[in-house]
Amino acid sequence: MSDDPIVQMTGIRKDFTGVRALDGVDFTLRPGEIHAVMGENGAGKSTLIKVLTGVHTPDAGDILLDGKSVRFHSPGAAQAAGISTVYQEVNLTDNLSVAENLFAGREPRLGPFINFRAMRRKAKALLDDIGIDLNVAAPLSSYSIAMQQLVAIARAVDIEAKVLILDEPTSSLDRDEVAVLLGVMRRLAANGTAMVFISHFLEQVYEISDRMTVLRNGKLVGEWATADLPENELIGHMLGREAVVLEQIERAAAAHHVADETPLVQAVGLGRKGSIAPYDLDVRRGEVVGLAGLLGSGRTETIRLIAGADRADSGSLSFDGAKVGGHNPRTASARGIAYCPENRKTEGLVGDLTVAENMILAMQASRGWARSIPVARRDKLVAEFIEKLDIRPANPDMPVKNLSGGNQQKVLLARWMLIEPKLLILDEPTRGIDVGAKADIQKLVAELSADGMAVLFVSAELDEVTRLSDRIAVLRDRDLIAVLESEADMTTEKIVDTIVAKGGER
Amino acid sequence: MTTETLTERPARSTLFDGLTKYIPIGATVALLIVMYLGGIANFKNFDSAQVIAGLFIDYAPLLVIAVGMTFVILSGGIDLSVGSVMAFSTMACAWLTVDAGISAPLAMVLVLAFGTLWGLLIGAVIHYFNVQPFIATLVGLFLFRGLTLQISDTDVSMREVDFWQWGMTHVEFGGKVRDGGFWLPYLSFVAFAVVIVAFVILHYTRFGRGVYAIGGSEQSALLMGLPVARTKIGVYAVSGFCASLAGVLAAFATKSANPLANVGAELDAIAAVVIGGTLLTGGAGFVLGTVAGVMVWGLLNTLIAFHGGLSSWWARIVMGVLLLAFILLQRVLARSGEKRRT
């Protein structure tokens, strides 16, 4: 692997309106190596990749491909030069067949006409080669997202790629599928294809990569051989903080249990046909209740009833000692229930508005449109929360869409904290964001509950639920099966055992 | 090195998937059959073969613009300029041949070239300036109606020019109409040719499959390295060509140019495309469905003409109701598709 580099990027700089996404980054890729690009969200990984693949053009710096200077102005141009990409979201067209997706733009032809038979045959052979067996004439939409992702990879591989870029390709795959993908990657590497691998899963990165380049805040931290960089050092480089804050959140909150008070939230037999079986659940002031369960177990459905986002068709809900009737998001918000839904892009933030405007939205809504918030007060509040939540860049006038996922999530949290809710409902607040922002948000949840706010918290990561919650509601198959007290010896295994055990009873 | 193979059967059977895909067009064909049988049951002479043949005479221009519209809608766009471009083309034919005295075949070629160029231009505006197709093509709707009226605000006759007799020259099939036969003029064959060429282009060429891919997801098509710019501009050029060709066919059919002809034809075309099973959001549909959609519109008008007592506005009222039904059907199918997937 000491050959001449196939890709050499030097001094790459890229600015977006007001943000320097990349600042003098160097990156070297050698034939046959699997090279991981590591960094927090917002570190510049995606931008670096997009510069290499022609989606963005760099503002400064050089790219050498096979020793020749290149500059791509479109993904098509990069593809023609031998750089193929598989993105995190499946970028295929699911209205066309599997075979058509594999060969779109380069279909085998007879004269001017597409030769569908040859195309299907070639598609079959290509997929066989990689180790997947599909009906290539079926529309892509009839397959799972995971399979679609593998089809995208097959397509990229077949374009005779010299360089294959895999941007979070495994985030929607299960273990077997990941194994197939990594197998394909090894085979390609053995054939001399250079690969850039981006993944949040450190385990996979260590299993497959030969070398790592670490970025932080748009700057290069360094390049290491994977074998020379133990995991804790890597995380240190990525975060640029000495210790990882995650461990420090030890449940200070557990101390302030107020046992005998009437619970803030009391759900009795609350349920909705087809989405969640009737359940009982209490949440007390100053308490964090976590919801654990597999994807599709009814976690989100449970909290949507309490948040007023869905209408319950059985049972009753009391809030702050009073029965709740005619529950909807507006009245919920008026009562002091703040709900951060799972999908922050489509259900929460307005991308084109600034950080400050997004933060202030709920507060303005609760005051009514006629009573505007004085500018000085607004600026002060916004500045306070930007600092408190460590939102970066700390610029209240930046459009929210230019922020990284973790920082967007913080803006959304700040919005709800501004109206000082009694109950904060968080659905997957840390999904898809980096370790640093995750730690900040977890810390914040702990602090809020210490201040007396009740928090309902959904997360797919059992670790997180265990660490943060005073009590854990466990769900399975759209049924709340148990509420566990989180003692000091609470472990993720106990939750898993509960899920498995209750499953066995049926 | 593991050599395990991952097998996955489609989440739904392909048969089922295939059926879902054909529900809208199946509904359209069923509707056609019901309308036709209803006509036969109620009206004398409705069973004459000429009733069907007549659809492809009177509605040949609509069929041609609807085919162009199918390309645009499949790509996820819309073209509101076709009615005006069509009227302008007819008027330009009359002006060039009657007033300017240019030879008719040359005039026809000029008109077709102009329509295509207009499509290219508006396609480029839509793609490079990222303008909503609705707005960009609305420009054409106003511009060409105005230009048409500027050339002449009254009817212009083209009877004196021999060339315009060609379109209605006809071929008989199976003898005279009273003997159970039917006839079709040359212009109908032009429309059929357009349908066949469009079908082949859409299903068997890279350009055609690119149209479907862009309609499915423009972002994905771009990232897959497909020639998005060329394809998007291309569909508007196809639509512009079809609109001007429809104008030429109208010149053949009526041998006169009416500056207020075809007002709202773009909407008739869109309705025909949707009723023919093409998704307004793009990416799914067929050109043969569009033929069925145009036949529904034509047959509806024919039924009302046979009835004699109903105002022709009833055709629009029924069409409105049908359109609503088909749009709802599309939504229901799309939604059940999403449900099955998750």
UniProtKB/TrEMBL annotation, chain A:
The keyword Repeat applies. GO terms for cellular component: plasma membrane. Pfam families: ABC_tran. The keyword ATP-binding applies. Residues 7-242, 244-502 form the ABC transporter domain. SUPFAM superfamilies: P-loop containing nucleoside triphosphate hydrolases. Its main location: membrane. InterPro entries: AAA+_ATPase, ABC_carbohydrate_import_ATPase, ABC_transporter-like_ATP-bd, ABC_transporter-like_CS, P-loop_NTPase. It comes from the Bacteria. GO terms for molecular function: ATP binding; ATP hydrolysis activity. Keywords: ATP-binding, Cell membrane, Membrane, Nucleotide-binding, Repeat, Translocase, Transport. It is a peripheral membrane protein. SMART domains: AAA. It is found in: Cell membrane. This is Sugar ABC transporter ATP-binding protein. The lineage of its organism: Bacteria, Bacillati, Actinomycetota, Actinomycetes, Glycomycetales.
Automatic annotation (TrEMBL), chain B:
GO terms for cellular component: plasma membrane. It is a multi-pass membrane protein. This is Sugar ABC transporter permease YjfF. It is found in: Cell membrane. InterPro entries: ABC_transp_permease (IPR001851). It comes from the Bacteria. GO terms for molecular function: transmembrane transporter activity. The chain crosses the membrane at residues 22-43, 55-74, 80-98, 105-129, 183-202, 233-254, 260-280, 313-334. Keywords: Cell membrane, Membrane, Transmembrane, Transmembrane helix. Its main location: membrane.
